[in-house]
Amino acid sequence: MGPFTLAVDAKSSGGISSDASNRKMQELQLEPKKFFASVNARDENPFDFLRILFEGVIAGGTAGVVVETALYPIDTIKTRLQAARGGGKIILKGLYSGLAGNLAGVLPASAVFIGVYEPAKQQLLRNLPENLSAVAHLTAGVLGGIASSFIRVPTEVVKQRMQTGQFTSASDAVRLIASKEGFKGLYAGYGSFLLRDLPFDAIQFCLYEQLRIGYKLAAKRDLNDPENAIIGAFAGALTGAITTPLDVIKTRLMVQGSANQYKGFFDCVQTIVREEGPSALLKGVGPRVLWIGIGGSIFFGVLERTKRFLAERRPNDQRYSKTE
User: Fold this and answer.
1) What end-to-end distance do the CA atoms of the chain give, in Å?
2) I need a labelling partner for 295 at 20 to 30 A (CA). Which of 5, 103, 113, 321 fits?
3) Residue 84: which of 173, 180, 160 has the closest Cα?
4) Binned average pLDDT, 10 residues per bin, the chain of 324 residues
5) What local confidence, expressed as pLDDT, does residue 117 receive?
6) Annotated region Disordered: where (predicted)?
7) Is the CATH number of domain 39-315 3.40.30.10?
């Protein structure tokens, strides 16, 4: 949808003609639509894939590192709760175990995710009707999740093995996992990871984007940093609670190592329910919701701030209208 503008030649008339008045009324009636998904810029602003990719990579990598560093202890507690079978005792020492090695994976994974998500989202918003903006956000979230999963899964496997005390360093973890379990050991639980993270990514980012669109429509202005952070926290906490059972299953499959306690996703579910009861599928829900809620606040707050910082430093002729 192109921009709705009114051009009045001051030389030809001292007042506004009836036609011009009608056009102005039509413009005012159509104006609210510009708040939906910002696809109003699709005609006047060319799609600069490389710029969007670059800015997405920088913003995503920055946000990922900040949130992972800040909330790593909560994630460690959540992992130990989920990995404990029956009434196993939770150790509260070494809550930053594996952080350095994890950051080496989080940085490129977050960069790849947002680097794929942003251009995919903006291209979809240009091609889909405005009332299907949620479809664009869901689809872009899935695409970003798939692209980053090739980095995120080995990172997650190493991180969780270290959090549960199986290894003391990331390099040892990678070497020993590969030697004992083969290359596929680094992708243990890959299917369950996708089953958890693809819905999580799609739902979280869709919720976040749609809430921002609705808020901007109501406020009729751009959102500030605290508002972005609050919306990110709500979207993250809600999505985290919904996907907790999938996270428990993913954790069990990733930390089992060569013991092969579970034959696969469904066997893992059946075994947990049979031996520990259905409530075990909600293990760690408190730390998970807290971690992802606060993490969503930090991640999206840093993400939007970084995107705005990069946009302000573009050449003047490249400072296009922001898309959602």
Assistant:
1) 15
2) 321
3) 160
4) 40 43 47 42 63 93 94 84 71 80 88 96 93 94 95 88 83 90 88 84 94 93 92 95 89 79 88 92 89 93 94 72 49
5) 96
6) 1-23
7) no
Amino acid 87: pLDDT: 58
156 vs 146: CA distance, rounded Å: 15
Q: Residue 223 and residue 35: Cα distance in Å, rounded? A: 12
- CA 63-151-174 angle, to 5 degrees, is 115
Rounded-to-integer distance, Cα 59 and Cα 203, Å: 20
- How big is the CA angle at 159 (ends 238 and 120), to the nearest 5 degrees? 55
Cβ partners under 8 Å of residue 219, min gap 6: none
Q: Which tokens belong to 266?
A: 């469904």
User: Tokens 């429509």 identify what position?
Assistant: 217
- Tracing tokens 């070494």 back to the chain, one arrives at 94
What Cα–Cα distance (Å) separates residue 205 from each residue in 53, 133, 219, 249, 288?
Answer: 17, 12, 21, 22, 17
Where do we find the tokens 């590969």?
178
The tokens describing 141, both together, are 């979230």
d(CA 136, CA 323): 12
- What pLDDT was estimated at residue 8? 38
Token digits of residue 152: 């995120």
Neighbours of 243 (CB within 10 A): 21
The per-type count for the chain, helices as H runs and strands as E runs, is 10, 0
